[in-house]
């Protein structure tokens, strides 16, 4: 059993990662979910997190954090996720409780109160986590691993070199990458292979309540993905959670990775120094490949589990 905190900016793929994590309570004890400005404003992504958790009848504490990056202004991604940050499904009206603490204090308290080390799934710009590590460095001892979606060694999506989550807040990413905490990086090298097909999305819409909701959201996401040349839909953020559930479906290598914060085309680039021999210098397990069918199977089965839960009936 892992104790898990999820930092996110839902976001279609964030939502799929949350759903999949929630479907595995015997393996992942979710201590809380925190939001950060990224795919959309903090207000909108927090609203989206509330909608997902309410729809699931979940009982997971939720806290909102930073509105935008440490240094620069937020650049959102409405072209991929729509104006709401998670277009495609009408969740109706209703609310979900929000913790009164800021996400950074919330994370600190959850981590320090946990009887064991915690794992963090980081699915968004790393602003909240960078602040957590700067303000409360003592948490480092209690974090076993950060499984994150971000970056990419071979190419970018936000610019030719850089991936969205890192590009939005490179200063935060560099703080996290150099923190000494073990990092598993699901960058574009692997996440673009972790895609579901149009047929798989369509079939979700014939199933239970949770699968249908996911199918509707992914229909929007699939359509918007076409403008970027995608035929199938990469569920980027789900890789960070899927790795925790079934690491054997991934292949990766340990390298020394840092983040460029310089102005210019490399700002936000995650670069790997593959020469460094010493294991202690290899701060990141860079995921490179995934068994696509196992990945899709894990996801579809997770939704079926949720369909069968009491709230869905
Ligand atoms: C990442 O950027 C966001 O749009 C997604 O939610 C994911 O976290 C992919 O580059
Ligand atoms: Ca995200």
UniProtKB/TrEMBL annotation:
* Gene3D superfamilies per UniProt: Ribonucleoside hydrolase-like
Query: Which terms in the Gene Ontology molecular function aspect does this entry carry?
Result: purine nucleosidase activity
Q: Keywords for this entry?
A: Glycosidase, Hydrolase
Q: Name one Pfam family in it.
A: IU_nuc_hydro
Coiled coil ranges: none
Superkingdom as given in the UniProt entry: Bacteria
Q: Name one GO cellular component term.
A: cytosol
Q: Which InterPro entries match?
A: Inosine/uridine_hydrolase_dom (IPR001910), IUNH (IPR023186), Ribo_hydro-like (IPR036452)
Instruction: Please report the stretch or stretches of sequence annotated as the Inosine/uridine-preferring nucleoside hydrolase domain.
Output: 4-295
The GO biological-process annotations, alphabetized, read as: purine nucleoside catabolic process
Q: What is the protein's name according to its record?
A: Nucleoside hydrolase
Protein species of origin:
Mordavella massiliensis
């Amino acid at each position: 059993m892992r104790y898990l905190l999820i930092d996110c900016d839902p976001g279609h793929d964030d939502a799929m990662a949350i759903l999949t994590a929630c479907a595995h309570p015997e393996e992942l004890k979710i201590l809380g979910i925190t939001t950060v400005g990224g795919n959309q404003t903090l207000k909108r992504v927090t609203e989206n997190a509330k909608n997902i958790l309410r729809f699931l009848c979940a009982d997971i504490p939720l806290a909102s954090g930073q509105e935008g990056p440490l240094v620069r202004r937020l650049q959102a991604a409405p072209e991929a996720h729509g104006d709401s940050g998670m277009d495609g499904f009408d969740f109706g009206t209703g609310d979900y409780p929000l913790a009164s603490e800021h996400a950074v204090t919330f994370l600190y308290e959850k981590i320090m109160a946990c009887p064991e080390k915690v794992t963090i799934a980081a699915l968004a710009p790393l602003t909240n986590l960078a602040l957590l590590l700067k303000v409360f460095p003592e948490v480092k001892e209690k974090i076993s691993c950060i499984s994150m979606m971000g970056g990419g060694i071979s190419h970018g999506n936000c610019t030719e070199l850089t991936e969205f989550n890192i590009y939005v807040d490179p200063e935060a990413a560099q703080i996290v990458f150099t923190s000494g905490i073990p990092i598993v990086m699901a960058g574009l090298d692997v996440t673009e292979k972790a895609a579901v097909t149009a047929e798989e999305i369509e079939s979700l819409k014939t199933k239970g309540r949770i699968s249908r909701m996911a199918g509707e959201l992914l229909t929007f996401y699939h359509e918007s993905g076409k403008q970027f040349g995608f035929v199938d839909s990469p569920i980027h953020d789900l890789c960070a959670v899927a790795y925790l559930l079934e690491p054997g479906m991934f292949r990766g290598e340990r390298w020394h990775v840092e983040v460029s914060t310089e102005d210019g085309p490399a700002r936000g680039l995650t670069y790997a120094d593959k020469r460094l021999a010493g294991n202690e210098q290899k701060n990141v397990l860079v995921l490179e490949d995934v068994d696509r069918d196992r990945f899709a199977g894990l996801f579809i089965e997770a939704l079926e589990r949720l369909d069968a839960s009491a709230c869905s009936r």
